[in-house]
Design goal:
Distance between the termini of chain A: 54 Å
Number of helices of chain B: 6
Order of helices and strands of chain A: HHH
Radius of gyration of chain B: 22 Å
Number of helices of chain A: 3
Strand content of chain A: under 5%
Radius of gyration of chain A: 17 Å
Helix content of chain A: over 70%
Oligomer: heterodimer
Helix content of chain B: 55-70%
Structural class of chain B: mainly alpha
Largest interface: A-B, 76 and 93 residues
Shape of chain A: elongated
Largest sheet of chain A: none
Number of strands of chain A: 0
Number of strands of chain B: 0
Largest sheet of chain B: none
Shape of chain B: globular
C-alpha cells in the first residue's frame, strides 16, 4: 500500500475535501483560516508524493513543498492580521455578521 | 534484538501499518478541526493533524519536509492561530451556531469533490512512471540553491513583506479608539 502513489493521492484528496467543507461551512473567520491550512497541507502532501514516486521529479518535490510551506506561513500571518483588524472594527469574528456592504 | 520484517499479529509490513495509522489520525483530527465547537480544541486538533502529516512525510522518504512541517506549522503557524483565537473570542457571548446555514450544501459539495478527486486519481495509471525514490537532504539542498535559487529569494522577500504587512494591519491606531 505504501508503494503505490494512489494511496497518498487519495489521502490528499480526502484531506482537501475536509478542508473545503470547513471553509464553506464554518462561521468563524479563524476556523476558515484553519480549513485553508488543511487544504494547503493536502496539496503539499500530493506534491511530496509526486516527488517521491516519479524519478524525474526527485528532489524537486521536496523543494517545491518547502517553498509552499514558506508561502503558507506568509499567508497565515497576513490572514490572521486581517481577522484581528476586522475584529477590532466589528467586534465579532463571525463572517456572516460582516454585512456592511450588503445593506 | 532486531524487529521482524512484518508486524507480528497483523502480518502486514511496518510501513503499511504506520501509513494506515497516520492516515487515520490525519483524517480523524482533520474532521475534528472542522466540526468541533470549541475553537481552542480545534487548534489543538490541528497540531495533531500536522504531526500525523509530518509522520507521513518521513514515511514517504522526505524527512526534510517533515522537519519543516513540525518547525513551521506546529511551531509557528498553529501557535499564531491559537494566539489569534485568544484575541478574538469573547467568553461573554458563546457562539450559538458552529456552522453557517449553508452547511448541508457545503457537505454535499465536499463529498462530491472527494469522490471526483479519488476517481480522477484511480483512473490514471501511475505504474508506468511510479518508482519509489528517496530524496537525500544533500541533493535537495543542491536543487534548492542552484536551480530554484530565484524562487528561494522571491519567497524570502514575500516573507518579509508578510511580516511588515501583518504588523501594519494588526497595529492599533495611535490616539484612536483602540481598546
Amino acid at each position: 500500500m505504501t508503494n503505490s502513489l494512489d494511496a497518498y493521492l487519495v489521502l490528499s484528496a480526502l484531506l482537501f475535501a475536509i478542508g473545503t467543507f470547513g471553509f464553506l461551512a464554518r462561521r468563524n473567520a479563524i476556523s476558515m483560516l484553519m480549513s485553508i491550512e488543511l487544504m494547503i497541507n493536502a496539496v503539499n502532501l500530493s506534491i511530496v508524493a509526486f516527488g517521491a514516486f516519479i524519478p524525474q521529479l526527485k528532489d524537486q518535490g521536496a523543494v517545491i513543498a518547502l517553498i509552499v510551506i514558506a508561502a503558507a506561513a506568509a499567508e497565515a500571518t497576513v490572514g490572521l492580521a486581517l481577522v484581528i483588524a476586522i475584529y477590532r472594527n466589528r467586534r465579532t469574528p463571525l463572517v456572516d455578521e460582516y454585512a456592511a456592504m450588503r445593506e | 534484538m532486531a524487529l521482524s520484517d512484518t508486524v507480528p499479529i497483523v502480518g502486514a509490513s511496518w510501513d503499511d501499518v504506520l501509513f494506515v495509522l497516520f492516515a487515520a489520525i490525519l483524517l480523524g483530527s482533520g474532521l475534528l478541526v472542522v466540526t468541533m465547537r470549541d475553537l481552542i480544541r480545534c487548534g489543538v486538533a490541528l497540531i495533531v493533524c500536522f504531526a500525523a502529516l509530518a509522520g507521513i512525510y518521513v514515511l514517504i522518504g522526505a524527512p526534510l519536509v517533515g522537519a519543516a512541517e513540525v518547525l513551521v506549522y506546529i511551531g509557528a503557524i498553529t501557535v499564531l492561530i491559537l494566539f489569534a483565537i485568544m484575541l478574538t473570542q469573547s467568553k461573554a457571548a458563546p457562539v450559538r451556531l458552529v456552522f453557517q446555514t449553508q452547511a448541508v450544501p457545503a457537505a454535499i459539495a465536499s463529498v462530491i469533490l472527494a469522490i471526483v478527486l479519488a476517481l480522477a486519481v484511480s483512473a490514471t495509471d501511475w505504474s508506468a512512471l511510479a518508482a519509489r525514490v528517496a530524496a537525500a537532504t544533500n541533493d535537495v539542498a543542491k536543487v534548492l540553491f542552484d536551480r530554484y535559487v530565484l524562487q528561494f529569494e522571491v519567497v524570502s522577500v514575500l516573507l518579509l513583506a508578510a511580516v511588515i504587512g501583518g504588523v501594519f494591519l494588526a497595529r492599533r491606531d495611535e490616539g484612536g479608539s483602540g481598546s
